[in-house]
Design a protein that fits this description.
Elements lengths: L2 H11 L3 H14 L3 H13 L3 H14 L4 H13 L5 H10 L8 H5 L1
Helix pairs in contact: 1-2, 2-3, 3-4, 3-5, 4-5, 5-6
Amino acid sequence: MSMLEQQADAEAGRGNLAQARVLLERLVGEAPNAARWIKLGSICAATGDLKAALAAVEKGLSYAPFDFMGLLSRASLLERMGVAGFGEAFGRALFHKPAGELGPQLTRM
């Protein structure tokens, strides 16, 4: 994990989501990957910017189209936005569910 990503995580942990977003936007500009884009999407969603969250998750999925967390995040965002077809998106995510137990938070989703 890069220093910039650690700083973003620390800011998010302190509840400073705006600063975490700034750091993650910088990070995906410098060294993009699926996990970083999806993390940025989570931060955007947490601040209520669902459109930016979906765009970030979609960008993450362009790097890793079968990433379970990305697919699950996308489905959840589509549901929150009231977009038709979110059920199909959840089905696609579940198709790519990794073996084993999901944590309680993911099980609720």
